[in-house]
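We modelled the chain as a single entity of 246 amino acids. Its sequence is:
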Amino acid sequence: MRRPLQWSVAIAASIGLMGLSAQSQATGMHTVKAGYGYTDFANDSGQLQGDGVPAGITAGAKNVDTFLLTYDYNFNKNWTFELAVGIPPTVKLKAQASGQDLGEVGESKSLAPTFLAIYRYPLQGGWNVYAGLGVNYTKFVDVEVYEGYTFSLLSGVVGPVLAQQLIASGQASAAGEIDDSIGAAFKLGVSHSFAANWLIDLSYSYYDVTADISNTVNVNGFPPSSQKISIDVDPSLYSLSLGYTF
């Protein structure tokens, strides 16, 4: 007859221990997280400017998946310093003219370490909500300009047949460069401590990133031609991560 009371005491003790475990996790000094991220680019583009460029051409980055790594230094249960990195995704660029899709024109890998000061508010049951502000540094590497871009520009000058011949014979090629970008970063998230030292984290981040792109088309026997475009790519990152605190 006393078994219901014994179960009640046991359940209450278990809940108490879970709460202590969650509190211990929340105040640990170091947290590492790894997970999946989906990047959605805003793509507010200017027009392509330069030699042999028709009016009205814009460009933008295609949305991409990535693998994320995050390190948190927890000063206390409320304040955290965060460094967010990840495996550099390959971001493909697409072009448009008067609303018509011109296809992919190039690609680049993006290294984007982000430093954030985060305020975390603990809730009951091992839940935390948080918000952070910081700065993002984006470096674009391995920039590649596709042959389709070179073909489109040359076709308007020498015609499609000669343009294709020049590219196929290696007499015409293009190279690109993208300036580094520094901008503000903002993050909102929620985490749950589901076991001692372990948590799951769901977050949304926004980064202020501008891609200033310069392209140069080289044709043997002619001076190089240059084109430039500026795109506010401003990525929104949606992420789901698993974390360990120690």
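As a brief sanity check on the tokenised model: The chain has one domain: 3-245. Residues 1-26 have pLDDT under 50 and may be disordered.
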